[in-house]
Amino acid sequence: MLAASDRVESTAAKRPWYLDVGSGLAVATVSVPAAIAAGVLCFSAVGPGYWLAGAVFGLMSAAISALLSSFAFRSSTVVGPVSTVCVTQAILIASLASHPLLEGDPGRVVALMTASVLLTGLVQLALAALKVGSIIEFTPYPVVAGFLNGVAFLTIGSQVLFVLHRTSWAELVSHPPAGPGEWAPLAFLAVFTLLGLTVPRRLPGLPAPAVNFAIGLALYYAALAVVPETWLGPRLTVARGTLDAALTTPSEVLAAVSGLPSLLLWQVALAALTVAAIGIVEMSMTARMVENASQQRLDKHRQLTWLGLTNLLSAPMGVPSSGSVSQTAARWHSGGVGPLGDLVRGAVLVLIATIGIRLLDYVPVIVVCGQLVLVGIGIFDAWSARQVLRMTRASNRASRHVGRRSLAVIAIVMVATASGHIVLGAALGIAAACWIFIADTVSPLIRARLTGDAARSRKARPLDDLAVLRAHPRETVVLVLQGPVFFGNAVELTREVARLDAATRIVMLDLRRVTSIDVSAIATIGALARQARRAARLVAICGVPSSLAFMVDELRNTDTAHQILVFADREAGLEWAEDLVLARSAGLVKADLPRPLGEADVTRGFAPDQLERFRQRLTPLDLARGAFLCREGDEGDTIWILVQGSVSIRVTAGEARDAIRVGSFAAGTTVGEIAFLQGSRRTASIVADEPLACFSLSRAAFERMSQEDPLIAALFYRNVAGVLAERLAVTTDQVRANESA
Q1: 323, 352, 380: which is the final residue of a domain?
Q2: Mean pLDDT, to the nearest integer, of 291-311?
């Protein structure tokens, strides 16, 4: 595990330089269409004369981020203009441009865009300096899902209205498209979207944004052979000559802000705060993806500082940035981890935005709109919606309650955001987050940390096995969780596992006290299991409440190649963990192997002749799986010495039909000694867990041995007393563990 840094210097040092160059070019193929689309989206409301400015400034903003990473931050993530933050900026611009005070003054509107991005960067830098930016990670996932779904609908809907030259859905309903010329852009978007959703799946080795951009261009120029160019709209060439007017200076920003009504100032400030928050969430998701891929912990405050500086430096261009999951994925798939790749990517972006600006003459605006529609579809969080709907239909009342509450939060935030009131959606999201936290009475996620010397199963084992388990107390750690589990504290759980002792090989997550879990936490636990597996650790879960049974299916769906380890309760999990520790210690595959009579606990210290005389007084017995050694209420006139297989102890409690399993005994132990020594009836049934081989000693045979061979009887008594004392010590450990957990 590398130190808490986002550098991957050890990997980069081993790579030839030309591989990083290739990686930079590969990521640039994703960054270019993403930056153009995000920039055009930001400037779309100002007017067609600013579309080219948006494309160029989107490229330059992405270049600033890449060059900052190369020279200063050397980050393994990618930051740049993405639609989730740019759609918020676009809504701000649209509302400002329609205000009577700013109508007909696009220069002042653009200056206010710069002010918004500048404030976004300052807020992010302040949060990074105060080291409180990670608090946004604790936003409940229904709030995030509702906001993302609202942004998705808003992004898709805005592009549909844009290509149809309508300002609202009401106008579209009252004045639907008439004639093939007005329907052509919508048909183009539909075909482009269909191809964009299917073709990249057949070309998994290529970056989807670049493939879709190429598909859009090919489809556009193929369509021109059939329809007039005027049907599909203009290219970015119509905006040539507006770059100087769009690039604002500090004096222009001050002039734009001065004299502005307080209501509009608050609107700009709230939009900037919303963009800052979305950027932090996107950055956290991007960083989490890198942590899973690289098995290193990133410095989130350093990442946030980088994001804030990027927005600060790109403020004159009016295009905000955030973490980019798609571009970061492209970087990791291409193997790029060094600063050279960022330098190449930044150089490509600068070259296209300057020397290669004429290439934008061939980029149709409708292709950019199609890219944004595909981005909107990608933003939509369908998984959370399916999961919540499943919970609302669950038979368990608690699960239905959590599902309906989550669905209500998603719907409220989504409707407010999709209606165009992103600031209102963010405010409702904050209120919903507070409500969820208060409702769940948030407490620390990890209630107790139990090591193998405290968390012991109720399986009675031979004394030499118990000695081995005592010698490896930290190979198994049980983390007892409580309360709601969501993205923020699930990330902290991952960090807690990473901080465990290097000797820990088995991590058991006890979910018996967990009240709710969201989809992001399930995904995080799945990633934790995969990450631990790469570090030669095993993560298992146990005690999943019936109301959260769906999480087991979701975990198995996230990693079909490896079966997730799930146990009904902590007892079953601890038995498995102890068996695994014993097997590893002995270099075996299975711990429960046959044990000769001479290795049983009750024959310790027996000389060979004494062992043979003792054997003559025993009766060998073989039982099939499920057979009863005795039943509850039987006479306790026999003790059994197990030499192969194991048995379960089952008792009836109250009005329960089925007996409850309260413990088990392994080969090498004795069972039934309490009733045998007391001369009382059996208080539990003893059932063979598997084909069983044992020896039985009746009370009559023991009494004869006491008279005829008192030394063997005394050794037997001493060993039984030692076994009972050891079991009492184990029981004491179990009581302590249960009290603390």
Answers
A1: 380
A2: 80
